[in-house]
Amino acid sequence: MTQLRRGLGAVAAYVRSAPGTYLWLAVLFVTTVALHHMSPRVEEEFLRQRSTNIHELSSHPVRVLITSAMWIDGGHWLPYAVLYTAFHAQAERWLGTARWLAVCVAAHVLATLASEGALLQAIRRGVAPLSAADTLDIGVSYALAGVVAVLAYRIAAPWRYAYLAVVLTVYAVPFVLSPTFTDFGHLISVLIGLGCYPLTRSRGKAWNPKETLAALRS
Length: 218
Description:
Blueprint: H1 2-16, H2 19-36, H3 40-48, H4 54-59, H5 61-67, H6 78-95, H7 97-124, H8 141-150, H9 159-177, H10 181-195, H11 209-217
Helix pairs in contact: 2-6, 6-7, 6-8, 7-8, 7-10, 8-10, 9-10
């Protein structure tokens, strides 16, 4: 029982150390449960009104940029809980809530505008159909990609370059092989995250995996 209390206390302390991450996850949990109680037809129309597609961005830009980050497309919350703990929580603990949030907002907003702007140009050139202006576009993946990228600065060289190579592979390969506007947005998000380097200054010594391994062995 004592060990259980200690374990629960450690979990609670960890959650408190990244309040923005876990508050966001709590919102996503509530909205995901809400979606599961909707019929497919109602769900699609409901999400479309909160989507950052061209139509909604031109009519309600601020509202949809905020609300689109409060819903998960697909309805599976648990994988996001893992990803938020692995990346968002680490970034928030390292950068502090304000700087972490700045990275999230920059990646989410700028990548959304860039991808939808590219889609708008494709529609005008006749490459994409006019109906693409109402495409369903919600989710938190752009903010996540930006945070994954900025965490490269948390890792000491040369390990940083290996991590960065993996990140670029994960996000660049889909764009190269079968590019979509969402893939383009993800790649832009990564570049935005890397561009947030000034926010990482004076945030302490970079993590060195070699030192961690040595400490575990001793």
